[in-house]
Design a protein that fits this description.
Largest interface: A-B, 67 and 76 residues
Low-confidence stretches of chain A: 92-169, 178-191
Structural class of chain B: alpha+beta
Helix content of chain A: 25-40%
CATH superfamily of the largest domain in chain B: Ubiquitin-like modifier-activating enzyme ATG7 N-terminal domain
CATH architecture of the largest domain in chain B: 3-Layer(aba) Sandwich
Helix content of chain B: 25-40%
CATH class of the largest domain in chain B: Alpha Beta
Largest sheet of chain A: 6 strands, antiparallel
Oligomer: heterodimer
Low-confidence stretches of chain B: 1-6, 75-81
Number of strands of chain A: 6
Number of helices of chain B: 11
Strand order of the largest sheet of chain A: 1-2-3-4-6-5
Order of helices and strands of chain A: HHHEEHHHHHHEEHEEH
Radius of gyration of chain A: 21 Å
Strand content of chain B: 25-35%
Shape of chain B: globular
Strand order of the largest sheet of chain B: 1-8-15-12-11-9-10
Largest sheet of chain B: 7 strands, mixed
Number of helices of chain A: 11
Number of domains of chain A: 1
Order of helices and strands of chain B: EEHEEHEHHHEEEHHEEHEHEEEEEEHH
Radius of gyration of chain B: 21 Å
Shape of chain A: globular
Distance between the termini of chain A: 38 Å
CATH topology of the largest domain in chain B: Cytidine Deaminase, domain 2
Distance between the termini of chain B: 55 Å
């Protein structure tokens, strides 16, 4: 399965090199975005929701068909707070989104949270980016195998350091975190919240935006991408949501696979047009 | 914070925390292998932060691959794109990357912190910090990059000059309760303009001047004298990365030191600027009154105040952190995952 994925990546890479980027709009017909439409939609996202910004990323990974300063979109430090149940209730309440039901269970609407991000790129509900509505059935796990496993043995002088430096203990003006937890039990959950960096790249092969997630634990240490999948509905983990190399950032990141994006966008567009609304890429 | 509002309680500050993007370690590795070699002299780096933008989580001082110079010399282009980004206020820092774990453990952390604190103190006295206010949040990073195991040991410090005796808190409440409705509207609009202009979006310390007609303007710190002559209300504002409803964030510490040293004010109204969804939110933002009674020698340039600021781990312990990136760096494990 991994091999087929690799083969596909190689195939896709070759096609991307040989075909030019889309320049003619097929947004209404196919639900795909041309490069300039991606930029337009991104500019709109940045202006409506300023926690998003364009980034240029690693110079060696720059895509020539995108402007150097507008390679991809990112919003950092989005908390993952809400439970799956409350998210589902919200979807029920937001009648408009129900029409896009996912009969074959791999449409993007059912993946809590990321569909919203995805939609935010082209749709009006951009401000809903305030919290990432990923279902987190599982609470935070510590991952000693991945991080900091050997810190005790490698830093033998820590005790000396604590003694010799009068940093924390003697400074009455530093808020002690234990103090905080003790006095505000309600904040305890919040302090242990995972956060995500959400980024949107342009996928030249599928001609759609593509959403990526980078997870962090409560002390803002990088989460293994596999752990990110725990925050994704199990119907979608490893199917719609896969772990791959980010086109602009280092390392493996979880991503909503774009293969169905065009088709789903097309559905939305059809609904809009049937209501007499003219869809535009920056709405 | 939990104490009474009636004054007398010690003004406490919530710590600044770090967040390091994987790209930072990748670039550090390539810098080390391709350019630095065994040269372990301090490297100037750039951290990024932004005001708190969500009522549930604080923002961090973030290091990205752009925080480091590149191994070739085309740095100027990345520098220009980094300016004016509202989600990325640049903060200068110093990286001490050692060649061995022994050297890492042997670093004199106390004197390194003191050294950085002295730079802040000097900038306060030379008034460079008035012109270039991000210097107040200067930070320090020590690291050991184990390129054989692809693991990185590191520890941040956010030096804060300690007022002795500590400042006390006169009053602290949400900005929306402090100001009149008209003032609040004017301040929100002024803050949003400040944040949307590419020339001021990444200037993290500023003045809020409110005239007798409740009109607010935001000014650079260097305009303090101008604000005085008009008999306006003046508040000292800063981008607050902290989300806590009853505690101002770390950058206020050195800001108070600057205000006290430069203008000899003992009663300071500060404004913790916070946002929601990228727009000014005066319900989350705080206004407070700090009362400073430091001894007069504190204003003397030659007596450098104590500094604190080594980052704590999740359990509140001062301890070095370690991240292993073998999964994304080790050719063997990359080959296995690709097979």
């Amino acid at each position: 399965m991994v091999l087929t994925q690799k083969l596909h990546e190689a195939f896709k890479g070759t096609v991307e090199r040989m075909t030019g980027p889309r320049t003619v709009s097929a947004f209404k017909e196919k639900g795909v975005l041309s490069v300039s439409e991606f930029i337009l939609a991104g500019d709109n996202l940045v202006s409506k929701c300023p926690t998003w910004s364009w980034e240029s990323g690693d110079p060696s990974k720059r895509k020539p068909y995108l402007p150097p300063e507008k390679q991809f979109l990112i919003t950092r430090n989005v908390p993952c707070l809400r439970r799956a149940a409350s998210v589902e209730e919200e979807y029920e309440a937001a009648g408009g989104e129900i029409l896009l039901d996912n009969e074959d269970n791999d449409g993007w609407l059912a993946t809590h949270g990321k569909p919203k991000e995805n939609k935010g790129d082209e749709d009006d509900n951009v401000p809903s980016m305030e919290a990432l509505d990923i279902s987190s059935k599982t609470r935070i796990h510590s991952i000693p195998s991945y991080f900091g496993g050997d810190e005790e043995e490698d830093i033998p002088d820590m005790a000396d350091f604590e003694d010799s430096d009068n940093l924390v203990e003697t400074d009455s003006a530093t808020l002690q975190s234990t103090y905080l937890v003790a006095h505000e039990p309600d904040d305890d959950n919040i302090l242990r919240t995972r956060t995500y960096d959400v980024s949107i790249t342009y996928d030249k092969y599928y001609q759609t935006p593509r959403v990526w997630l980078t997870g962090y634990d409560e002390s803002r240490m990088l989460l293994q991408p596999e752990l990110v999948l725990e925050d994704v509905s199990q119907d979608h983990a490893r199917k719609t949501v896969t772990i791959e190399d980010h086109p602009h950032l280092h390392g493996k990141h979880a991503s909503v696979h774009p293969c169905r994006h065009g088709a789903v966008m097309k559905k939305i567009i059809d609904v809009l047009m049937s209501r007499g609304v003219e869809p535009e890429v920056d709405k | 914070m939990a104490e009474q509002d009636g004054g007398g309680s010690i003004l406490q500050f919530a710590r600044f925390n770090s967040s390091v993007d994987e790209g930072f370690w990748h670039r550090l590795s390539s810098l080390k292998l391709n350019k630095l070699g065994i040269d372990d002299s301090p490297i100037p780096i750039t951290g990024f932060y932004a005001p708190c933008s969500h009522s549930h989580v604080s923002n961090h001082l973030t290091l990205l691959s752009e925080s480091l110079p590149t191994d070739d010399n085309e740095q100027s282009s990345t520098q220009t794109t980094a300016r004016g980004n509202r989600n990325r206020c640049s903060v200068p820092g110093t990286l001490y990357n050692t060649n061995t774990v022994e050297a890492y453990n042997g670093l004199d952390k106390k004197s390194l912190l003191k050294q950085e604190a002295k730079k802040i103190w000097d900038d306060i006295h030379s008034e460079r910090a008035v012109e270039e206010s991000a210097l107040l949040s200067r930070f320090l990073l020590i690291s050991f990059a184990d390129l054989k195991k692809w693991s990185f040991h590191y520890w941040f410090a956010f030096p804060a000059l300690v007022l002795a005796p500590p400042a006390t808190l006169g009053e602290l409440k949400p900005a929306s309760q402090w100001f009149t409705l008209q003032e609040a509207e004017s301040i929100s609009a002024a803050c949003n303009d400040w944040r949307n202009s590419s020339t001021t979006a990444d200037v993290p310390f500023f003045l809020i001047c409110i005239d007798s007609n409740s009109n607010a303007t935001i000014r650079h710190l260097r305009d303090w004298e101008v604000c005085q002559s008009d008999g306006q209300k003046v508040l000292f504002g800063f981008y607050d990365p902290c989300h806590l409803p009853t505690t101002p964030g770390w950058p206020l510490r050195n800001f108070l030191a600057l205000i006290y040293s430069k203008w000899s004010l003992e009663r300071i109204h500060f404004f913790c600027y916070r946002e929601n969804r990228g727009f000014a939110d005066l319900g989350l933002s705080l206004v407070g009154e700090a009362l400073i009674t430091a001894p007069s020698e504190w204003r003397d340039h030659d007596s450098i105040p104590n500094a604190v600021g080594w980052e704590l781990n999740n359990d509140g312990k001062p301890i070095s952190r370690c991240i292993s990136l073998a999964k994304s760096m080790d050719p063997t494990s990359l080959a296995i995952s690709a097979a």
